[in-house]
Amino acid sequence: MTGTTFVIGAGPGIGQAVARRFAEDGASVAVLARSRSTVDGAVAAVEQTGGTALGLLADAADEASLRAGLDAAVERLGVPDVLVYNAAWVRYDRPGELSAAELTATLRVNVVGAVSAVTHLAPRMAAAGGGTVLFTSGMPTPRAGATSLSLGKAALRAARSVLADEFGPRGVHLATVTVGGPVSPGSALDADRIAEHYLRLARQPAGAWEHDVLIEGGTVE
Fold it and tell me: SS3 for 131?
C-alpha cells in the first residue's frame, strides 16, 4: 500500500507501532502529539525500521492546535489516505472522584478531539476520492474503576457510528479498533500485532468494510 497516513497520538505502544507498520508498507507518515519528546520518539521509531516520518506538535484537547497541526501535515504531505486517532487520556477513577471540569477535560482528549479531527479532514478526504479513519478504542465492558475512560471510549464508538453515517456514503471508511485489555509486549495484545489490524482495515475495499474490531485474549470478533 502507498499513500499518506496521519497518526494522532503517537506515543510508545499502539501509536508508534501503527506509524511504523504503515511506513513499512510504503506510506508517507505524519505523527502528531502534544509533547516534543513523544513526537521525536515516534519519528525515531519509524526511522529505525527504515522509514521516514514527519513529526508535528498538536494538542488533541485544543481544537485550534489540532487543526493547525493537521493543516501543516496536509501542506507537507497532502490529504491523508488514512487518519488514525490514537490519542487518549488513560486514568483510573471512580464515579464522583473527578469534578465536572476534570471529567470534561478527559472527554476532550478521548472523544471530542476525534470528532474535531474527522470533521476537519474527512470532507477533504472525500473530495480526494475517499479514505479510511481508524479510532483506537477500548473498555468494551465499562467499569466503575475506570469511569472517565469507560465513558470516553463508549462515546468514541458512538462518534464513529455518527461520523460513518455522515461520511461513509462519501467514500470514507470509519472503524474502531477496540483493544480489550492492557497492551503488553509478546502477548496477544502486543502493539505490533494490534497494528496489523489497522493496516488490514485500511486495505479493505468498499463493500467489505468492517466497522468495529474487538481484539481480546487473542481473538478477533
Answer: strand
Q: Rounded to an integer, what distance in angstroms lies between the CA atom of residue 25 and that of residue 198? A: 12
The pLDDT confidence band at residue 188, using thresholds 50, 70 and 90, is confident
DSSP 8-state symbol, 51: -
- Angle CA(2)–CA(196)–CA(82) in degrees, nearest 5? 40
Nearest to 79 by CA among 133, 6, 166: 6
User: Is 119 in contact with 67 (CB distance < 8 Å)?
Assistant: no
- Domains located in the chain, CATH noted: 4-220 (3.40.50.720)
Q: Which cell goes with 92?
A: 483510573
For 27: left if phi > 0, alpha if psi spans -120 to 50, otherwise beta; the answer is beta
Tell me the CA distances in angstroms from 85 to 20, 94, 143, 166, 198, one per residue in order.
Answer: 15, 25, 23, 18, 11
pLDDT digits (tens, 9 = 90+) for 130-162: 999 999 999 999 999 999 999 999 999 999 999
Model pLDDT for residues 36-50, shown as the tens digit of each residue? 999 999 999 999 889
Residue 137: strand pairing partners: 178
Give me 173's grid cell.
Answer: 471508511
How many other CB atoms are found less than 10 A from the CB of residue 196? 14
Q: Is the pTM of this model over 0.90?
A: yes
